[in-house]
Fold:
Amino acid sequence: MFNVESWQEIFETMRKNKLRTFLTAFSVFLGIFILVILMGFSNGIENGVSSQFESDATNKISIRTGITTKGYQGLNPGRRLQLRNGDYDNLNQKFEENIEYKTATYSTWGGQVNYKTQQGSYRIEGANADQQFIENQSMVSGRFLNQADLLQKNKVAIIGQQMKMDLFKDEDPIGKMIMLNNNVNFQVVGVYTDPGGSREESRLFIPLTTAQQVFNAGQDIRSISYTVKMSEDFDEAVATSTAMSEAINQDLRNRFTVAPDDRSAVNVDNTLEEAKKIYGLIDTIRYVFWFIGIGTIIAGIVGVSNIMLIIVKERTKEIGIRKALGALPSQITGMILQEAIFITAISGLIGLLAGVFVLEALSPLVETDFLRYPKADLATSLTTLLILIVAGAFAGFIPARRAAHIKPIEALRDE
Amino acid sequence: MIEIKDLHKSYKTGNNSLHVLKGINFNVKEGELVSIMGSSGSGKSTLLNILGMLDEADEGSYTLDGTPIKNLNEKIAAQYRNKFLGFIFQSFNLINYKNAMDNVALPLYYQKLPRKEREERAMHYLEKVGLADWAEHLPNQLSGGQKQRVAIARALASDPKVLLADEPTGALDTKTSYEVMDLIQGINDEGRTILVVTHEPDIAQMTKRIVNLKDGRIIDDTLVNQVKALSNV
Structure:
């Protein structure tokens, strides 16, 4: 089957039957092309949505309190609820077994930061040592806060990459002194980067204990965040996380005597639950795209089979002549199959390349929050191409075999 | 060259069985030019198809060049056809997207000859039928007579033992018919065995022996004085 002679014969046949060759090639080309584009967009949506979650850990629970909006058990609305160190310790103790990382923060917006002649306004956050993991931050240089900083109320600061560039330019900030709010000197001990981008990197972290002292906050804290220990099973992790945030919610509502439906007074956010919804959505989108893609491929296969049937029908007489001249049945089957496989493979490959090319060209143009880097997975595309070739061969095989076993006398009678 | 004993063939159409050949006995020696005549339905085409291994007999024996032709599977039939037989059809049966030379070279492709040799031999036979200048033409650029000559060149290309011609002049006018018969006579004069199926008496007179079929039996088998086709042109 794979000798030069039979290839020459097939190329000649294809060259002399351009329309037929083109039609077969086009249906395969289109199938693969559409599949690659769909796959690219499916991946793009997935990338886009996933990146929305990158700025923080996905298994985060964050707790905030605010002002009550509803009267409850004789208490008036409008009360300001204040979390304190004691609340944090209580919750830590109660949910110890499910907690992976924990932090409480005390933050101020618009804090003024000076380094030599440079100055800027940044958010200053007092935090615990685990903050880094909860915010999904990684160190560019130096270190993050540690337990000793918190116990000794050290005046040390961790600055974001963006701040470093604003204030220090090319200088190495580690060990340098900066001044906060024009009255307290802090030593920079680390620079972090955050997948959330420059907005998240325009923050400065100092030990929570130091912050409470410097800002005269006493025992006050603004928020508490946890990450939940992840079990192997995602659904189980979601269940644990949901149960824990429910329990925390209940605990705080009892402690502050808040109406069960007062969202702004006590707010416990569970990222994992959100993540689950979004991942569910991504899955759905992916299934839909796959469904359409597979449908397209099936349509392509049906198209190829159809054309193969027509080809065999159209060539019945030719097959009869060839058989009368001494062609073996296997040579007839081989000839038709080889042609089908060759056309499918080449046009499929062209469709694949065209699809990848269009995605590459389109990729920089479409960058919304929910569609990033639309790229086709090469392995999947090649697998699909292979399936299409095999299917095309199979689709061609049945009519080809039938053709090969037509009695030449009947084939020659065919007008 | 050809020995046939007690050949039977029937076709089933629905519930009816049509007995087409009812015991044919018939020998052809090497170098003969035989015409098989008969009205339509006499079984002459069926006989030719069986001789050409395009169809199989129900009963009887068939020996070709000392080789018993029986229990053929498709593969062996194809090899025998390629080795022993050359076909000439009424409707020429050229492959319409191949030029004259490629059509002539096709049986050689199935003999697995290298391309160069195929082309040389194809050219040789095209010269023989007087169409060397038409080698690059497609069938639809040729006249009926030219097509049939290409088909004859193709039938000769594989150097077969026997040429089988089924109404070779059926689609041609008288003048062209005689030209084709002249070619066939010339090939026969070189010693090749040829069987011609025809219903035209003048064509039959140009062969050396006429076998008459009627209702599936041979009713007459006589040697004739061959009329040279060229004298009629």
